[in-house]
């Protein structure tokens, strides 16, 4: 399996638990960023709580998985399989972002309008 991780050995889980937790939370943050455009005026919104709008920059919008990719590379955990998953994730994230932006503006959405 992934990096000699044995599902039947509890020690394997604990070895990778910190990075697995980071990856999961990072992806949930990206999802929250997309959904945030649907409720931008709420005071208790995700962006308001962590001041996300000040954190975002052009690099993060063109490659939102860049920091995640870097974290995996630094720990020598990046593989071609993971890189492919991140590329697929980028496509999904971009489509979701288009959908959320269109929905927030009350636009009709169809499959051709998402790219």
* Topology order in helix (H) and strand (E) letters: HHHHHH
Overall average pLDDT: 77
Total helical segments: 6
Q: How much is the radius of gyration in Å?
A: 17 Å
Share of helix, binned: 55-70%
Proportion in β-strands: under 5%
Main sheet properties: none
Q: What is the global morphology?
A: elongated
Distance from first to last alpha carbon: 35 Å
Question: What ranges have pLDDT less than 50 throughout 5 or more consecutive residues?
Answer: 47-55
Task: Tell how many strands the DSSP assignment holds.
Answer: 0
Structural class: mainly alpha
Short description:
This protein is mainly α and 115 residues long.
Q: Can you describe what's shown?
A:
By secondary structure, the chain is mostly helical. Helix content is 65%, strand content 0%. It is built from six helices and no strands. It starts with 9 loop residues before the first helix and ends in an 11-residue tail after the last helix.
Throw out a few tags for this protein.
mainly alpha; elongated; 115 residues
